[in-house]
Amino acid sequence: MGCMDGKTGLVVGIANDRSYAWFIAESIIREGGTCLFTHLPGDKMERRARKAIESLGVEDPWLAPMDASTDESLDEAFAAIAQKTDTLDFLVHSIAFADKDWLKEGKFTATPREVFTQAMDISAWTYMAMANRALPMMSDGGSMLAMSYYGAEKAVPGYNVMGVAKAALEATTRYLAMELGQKNIRVNTISGGPLRTMSSMAVGGFSSILDWVEQKAPLKRNVTGNDVGDSAVWLLSGMSSGVTGQTIYVDCGYSAMGL
Ligand SMILES: NC(=O)c1ccc[n+]([C@@H]2O[C@H](COP(=O)([O-])OP(=O)(O)OC[C@H]3O[C@@H](n4cnc5c(N)ncnc54)[C@H](O)[C@@H]3O)[C@@H](O)[C@H]2O)c1
After folding, report:
1. Is the distance from the beta carbon of residue 3 to the nearest atom of ligand 1 less than 6 Å?
2. Angle CA(160)–CA(145)–CA(79) in degrees, nearest 5?
3. Across the chain, what does the average pLDDT equal?
4. Is there a domain that residue 105 lies in?
5. Is 231 part of a structural domain of the chain?
6. Which domain, by its residues, includes 95?
7. For residues 151 and 85, what is the distance between their CA atoms, to the nearest angstrom?
8. Ligand 1 geometric centre to CA of 97 (Å)
9. In the predicted model, is pLDDT for residue 1 greater than 90?
């Protein structure tokens, strides 16, 4: 008997078995939930995502291509999801993108317009775009979740334009919660601590962030993917039924420190 028994939802953002989305799916499945997945278009991307998902013990996973940067691809993916299921109980948005040339210390001020708008588009706007497309299928009591980082709130060297996009993602969470609460759908975001993944390695000086957090966080360690996966399940299940519009820190307490 798990807290996700009988629940079906969509998990977006598994690139490999180090992705935050992979750990979230692992916890959902362990608690009895069923996940549908998407991958970036292309055979190589599909193979890589499929291999990671199969390593979770999911035989013959349901996967659809989706490039969240185009409306056509979003529409096609959600049309395919609607063919597969009438109901979604949860939605996990665990994607972000910014040109890594601009994720270096000292590069924020000169960020070009197209780099800024692309980061905002893929990392923040798509939460709204997916929520809107998922809405007709979302069950009463459904729950949505995205992934943010402390660089939304405080300036973190090298995080740059991604920090601005994460601030927009957190604000998007609150506005989605306001509108979807009327349908008894909850919308939250986890602000996760730094974890070595394909995306995080694009952030300049990422290894020194890990070292710093380990020294300064109250728990004297960095988060694991499982720390975030298990908190995600709490937010996606009925266990958090009164929680919406929130950014929940899962960061070994780092954000609680002044110095
Ligand atoms: N790793 C960290 O330190 C950390 C910390 C806090 C928050 N996060 C956030 O967690 C989320 C997942 O990142 P991750 O660290 O697991 O890295 P990851 O590289 O494993 O996952 C990022 C995912 O974004 C997807 N993606 C990028 N552009 C896309 C597009 N146009 N359409 C569809 N998918 C697209 C990639 O395919 C990939 O699956 C991101 O929102 C990230 O900002 C990461």
Report:
1. no
2. 105
3. 97
4. yes
5. yes
6. 8-252
7. 36
8. 7
9. no
